[in-house]
Each structure stands twice: as structure tokens, then as C-alpha cells.
């Protein structure tokens, strides 16, 4: 077996089965690490719990809902504002989070009374919000608080409100993926089919597994609307609570993130006969194929092709420019779950980079199978890594950039490795044709940032030239621009000649590269 043993984890022999290096001719069966298992005690895992998966990933993007956690305040705080689930409801769900703030006395004597009091106080504080989701946590699950009974009591007393209860305490699954499953099925059981939606098109879909990170969803909705498709609801980005109650009337479930939302799609197919179609909004080829599949289902593939042709003509030249400059740069693709296979092949094929490692904190073995299959020989795949293993992998692989979450990303920065936020993005959205170019631009800016180049110098011993790391300044000098522009530290002031810094680089960098190569040859 091609297992990889980390030096830092030799004291925990079981960890050897959770990391593999893809060898020559390896088939997927022999190079899969174990996954979606209970965390091994002592490994200092960084994965999220089932409560986090339910509230933070799936539930919170709903825009017109009071999201209240029944438990200690720490659970609530840990799942608040770390992802950019934007909404057109003035970002209500990002601005506010609610908790019953359970204390030791409540654990001893019960916390149902304090829960009811908090529910009523929250509705009174925000009278324009008439919908609520209550999330169970470990503490109140262990003492057996009957949340459903309290919620029903409030709804009987306040008939204008509606409350959804999600029983997904942290221990409900090996990782946050267990919480995804819990809230998917709970929503279907409690709320789907309780409201009849208004149908305005012959082509009606639910857009499932989409959370509107930095506006991802809006990009895709624009494509669907241009095709004449009515999006009945989005599960759950920028979505209305009541819209999601009418999911049962869609003609097709279009699934983006299979790891977080395939459960509700499969049940909607079993209970209501709604077909499931998996798509991918990342990358020119994958996105184009996805739009064509949706178009083919409804018999309007010509509309999809028109969008693909228009957008490709507009954005492909810019993507190709970045691809030439990112070719063979080494990338560690360390997101949470499905992005390891959504991105692995696309960034290699369309941006020229080389994925040298993939990992997942909560994915199943099916996620690893798809991710590893899209990587080349020598790629390191890790399940549920910890900080020490991350550091050892970075020292071994020497990547040019890492795509991961904020916590491991901050560690990477301390090791002088640039990182991009794979969960909340740096400058998103990243979906769509323009978004994919934006992603490439962020990668380029991270790798070629003068600050990161300077961070690799040790001022205690390295000889430092005055212009060391200032690639942009040397680029301008070699490109033969005017003294006025060369002397200005704020390049974007010169909008008369250049539309943006990116435009300036695009017009001057090729000449700089040619002169640099000639100088090196001499």
C-alpha cells in the first residue's frame, strides 16, 4: 500500500492509513486513504463537528431567518461570520447570531424555559423577521431538552411565526458532514411541501448545494435566467425560508456541492420524483458542460451554447495570459470537502499549475477517489490532517501557493507560503467564466506578490539588494515607461493609459520577461 507516514505522527500509527502518495500506475483502490472516520484521539484534528456542518455550512446562508443555537455561547461564536454568505437582505444572517447561552445551572436544572424566553425575545427584537431555525448542541442534547415541544408551544402562541428545529449536536457524526445529512433530511421532513410556490416558467429548478460565497450564486442565477429557467429556490444561499418550503414543485434539482446536499436531492427524487443533475460551476470546460447538460434536459441547449460562446470569447484570452505565467507552479489544494475534486483537474488543465497535494477534513472516500484521480503521480493525499502534518507536508513539497481555510492559511503565511482562502475566497466570486479569471488573478498575485518575495529573506544573514522583491518596479523600468509613471508608487492613478493594475501588467510584463530571460542567458 502506498501509505505515507508523517514523522510527527509516528507516535500514532493509525495515522499512517490516512495519507497516501499516488505512485506510478496506482489504481484508485490501492491509493485511497481512509476517510470519514471518527477522529483518532490525540491527533489534534482541525475538522468541524456535526453541529458546525448543520448551522455554519447549510443553515446560516438562509437570509430571512433568526438562527439561534441552544447551548453554550462558544458554539454559536465559533460558527459566526467566518464565511462570506452574502444576501440581499442587508446581510441579516451575517450581522446577527443568537444563542441561549446555556450555563452550568441550566445543565443541572434544564434549559427549556430559557430557550422559550430567548425565542420570544429574539422575535420581539426583530419584529420584521418571522422565521427561525433552532440548532441543537451537545450540551442540551445530552440533558434531553425537548426543543420540538418548545418550538411548537411558541408557534401556538405566536401563529405568525414559523420555526424549524435541527437536532444536530456535535457528536451526531464523525465530522461536519454528518451535520450536512442531519439538516438536509430534517428540512425535508419538517418543511418541504408546506407551502405552494408560484410557477412562472416551463423550466423550473432547485439550485442545490450552493451557498452564495461572495456572490457565486448570483453568477449562476444570471446564466439560468438568460436561459429562461425559473430558479424556485436555492438550498440555501441567499434563500428565503418560505421559498425552500416549496422545493417539491421543481422539475429538476441542479446539484452543485454533492458532499453537502446530495441527501436532500436523493430524497426529493424518491418522494416527489424530481430528477437530480450534478453540475460544476468552476472552470471553463466544466461550467460549459454543466450549462449544456441543463439545457439538454429542457431542450434549450442552444441557449446554453450562446452563453458559453459569448463568455468564452470575452474571458478566455485573459485566462490564457495567466496560464502562461502560472505554468508548473506547485499548488497544495487543501479545502474542506468537494472543492478538492471540483478544482483539481480544472486548475491544472486551465491554469497550468501542478497540484502536488490534496486533503479533506470531512470528505468521504468518494471525495478522495475523485480528487486523487484528477491529480498526477506523486501527489500527497491526506484525510483529516492536523497542523503539524500540514507543516511537515509544506516543508516536504515546497508549494508555491496553498488553497485552504483561514486557520491553516495563517500557519502557511508564517512559513512564508502564500495562501488563498478556499472557503470564503480572497476576491470572489470564483464561479462563472469571469470568476475563474478572477481566481487565476488571485493566484498570480499571491505567487508574484513583492511582499511574499521579501518575506522569504532572513534579514539577519541574507544580503539584501535595494530592489530585492520589487518585481513590479523593475518591470516598469524595463518596459520603457515614462519617468512619471516609474516614480509613482500608486499605479492605479494612471487610468488614462491603463484601465487597472492588471491591464498595466498585461501590457508590460511580457516585455519584462523577455528582457529578463535575455539577461539571464548572457
How would you characterize this protein structure?
This protein has about 525 residues and is an alpha/beta fold. It has four domains: about 50-190, Nitrogenase molybdenum iron protein domain (Rossmann fold); about 205-310, Nitrogenase molybdenum iron protein domain (Rossmann fold), CATH 3.40.50.1980; about 315-445, 3-Layer(aba) Sandwich (Rossmann fold); about 465-520, no CATH class. Helices cover about 45% and strands about 10% of the residues. It has helices at about 50-60, 75-80, 90-95, 105-110, 110-125, 140-145, 145-155, 175-190, 215-225, 240-245, 260-270, 285-300, 300-325, 340-350, 365-375, 385-395, 405-415, 430-445, 450-455, 470-480, 485, 500-520; strands spanning about 20, 65-70, 100, 130-135, 160-165, 205-210, 230-235, 250-255, 275-280, 330-335, 355-360, 380-385, 400-405, 420. The protein has a six-stranded mixed beta sheet, with helices on both faces. Strands 3-2-4-5 form a four-stranded parallel beta sheet, sandwiched between helices. Strands 7-6-8-9 form a four-stranded parallel beta sheet, sandwiched between helices. The two termini are about 50 Å apart. One of its GO terms (molecular function) is metal ion binding. Keywords: ATP-binding, Iron, Iron-sulfur, Metal-binding, Nitrogen fixation, Nucleotide-binding, Oxidoreductase. It catalyses: N2 + 8 reduced [2Fe-2S]-[ferredoxin] + 16 ATP + 16 H2O = H2 + 8 oxidized [2Fe-2S]-[ferredoxin] + 2 NH4(+) + 16 ADP + 16 phosphate + 6 H(+).
Amino acid at each position: 500500500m502506498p501509505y505515507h507516514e508523517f514523522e510527527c505522527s509516528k507516535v500514532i500509527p493509525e495515522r499512517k492509513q490516512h495519507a497516501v502518495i499516488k505512485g506510478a500506475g496506482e489504481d484508485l483502490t490501492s491509493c485511497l486513504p481512509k476517510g470519514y472516520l471518527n477522529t483518532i484521539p490525540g491527533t489534534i484534528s482541525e475538522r468541524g463537528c456535526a453541529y458546525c456542518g448543520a448551522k455554519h455550512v447549510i443553515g446560516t446562508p438562509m437570509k430571512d431567518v433568526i438562527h439561534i443555537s441552544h447551548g453554550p455561547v462558544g458554539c454559536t461564536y465559533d460558527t459566526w461570520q467566518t464565511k462570506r454568505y452574502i444576501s440581499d437582505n442587508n446581510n441579516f444572517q451575517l450581522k446577527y447570531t443568537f444563542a441561549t447561552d446555556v450555563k452550568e445551572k441550566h445543565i443541572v436544572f434544564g434549559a427549556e424555559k430559557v430557550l422559550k424566553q430567548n425565542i420570544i425575545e429574539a422575535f420581539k427584537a426583530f419584529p420584521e423577521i418571522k422565521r427561525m431555525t433552532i440548532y441543537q448542541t451537545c450540551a442540551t442534547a445530552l440533558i434531553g431538552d425537548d426543543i420540538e415541544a418548545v418550538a411548537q408551544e411558541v408557534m401556538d402562541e405566536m401563529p405568525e411565526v414559523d420555526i424549524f428545529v435541527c437536532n444536530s449536536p456535535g457528536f451526531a457524526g464523525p465530522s461536519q458532514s454528518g451535520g450536512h445529512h442531519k439538516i438536509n433530511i430534517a428540512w425535508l421532513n419538517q418543511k418541504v411541501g408546506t407551502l405552494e410556490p408560484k410557477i412562472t416558467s416551463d423550466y423550473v429548478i432547485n439550485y442545490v448545494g450552493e451557498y452564495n460565497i461572495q456572490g457565486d450564486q448570483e453568477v449562476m442565477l444570471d446564466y439560468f435566467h438568460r436561459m429562461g429557467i425559473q430558479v424556485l429556490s436555492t438550498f440555501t444561499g441567499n434563500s428565503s425560508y418560505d421559498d425552500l418550503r416549496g422545493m417539491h414543485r421543481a422539475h429538476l434539482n441542479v446539484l452543485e456541492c454533492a458532499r453537502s446536499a446530495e441527501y436532500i436531492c436523493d430524497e426529493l427524487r424518491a418522494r416527489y420524483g424530481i430528477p437530480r443533475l450534478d453540475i460544476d460551476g468552476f472552470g471553463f470546460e466544466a461550467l460549459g458542460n454543466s450549462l449544456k447538460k441543463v439545457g439538454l434536459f429542457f431542450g434549450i441547449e442552444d441557449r446554453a451554447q450562446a452563453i458559453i460562446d459569448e463568455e468564452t470569447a470575452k474571458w478566455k484570452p485573459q485566462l490564457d495570459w495567466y496560464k502562461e505565467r502560472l505554468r508548473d507552479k506547485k499548488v497544495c489544494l487543501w479545502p474542506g470537502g468537494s472543492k478538492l475534486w471540483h478544482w483539481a483537474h480544472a486548475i491544472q488543465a486551465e491554469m497550468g499549475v501542478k497540484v502536488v497535494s490534496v486533503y479533506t477534513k470531512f470528505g468521504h472516500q468518494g471525495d478522495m477517489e475523485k480528487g486523487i484521480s484528477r491529480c498526477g503521480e506523486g501527489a500527497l493525499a491526506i484525510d483529516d490532517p492536523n497542523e503539524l502534518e500540514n507543516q511537515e507536508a509544506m516543508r516536504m513539497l515546497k508549494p508555491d501557493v496553498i488553497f485552504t481555510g483561514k486557520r491553516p492559511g495563517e500557519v502557511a503565511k508564517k512559513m512564508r507560503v502564500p495562501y488563498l482562502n478556499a472557503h470564503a475566497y480572497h476576491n470572489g466570486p470564483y464561479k462563472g467564466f469571469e470568476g475563474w479569471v478572477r481566481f487565476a488573478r488571485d493566484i498570480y498575485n499571491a505567487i508574484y506578490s513583492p511582499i511574499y518575495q521579501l518575506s522569504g529573506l532572513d534579514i539577519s544573514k541574507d544580503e539584501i539588494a535595494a530592489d530585492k522583491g520589487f518585481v513590479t518596479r523593475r518591470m516598469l523600468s524595463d518596459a520603457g515607461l515614462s519617468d512619471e509613471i516609474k516614480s509613482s508608487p500608486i499605479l492605479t492613478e494612471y487610468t488614462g493609459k491603463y484601465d487597472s493594475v492588471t491591464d498595466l501588467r498585461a501590457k508590460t510584463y511580457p516585455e519584462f520577461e523577455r528582457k529578463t530571460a535575455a539577461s539571464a542567458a548572457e
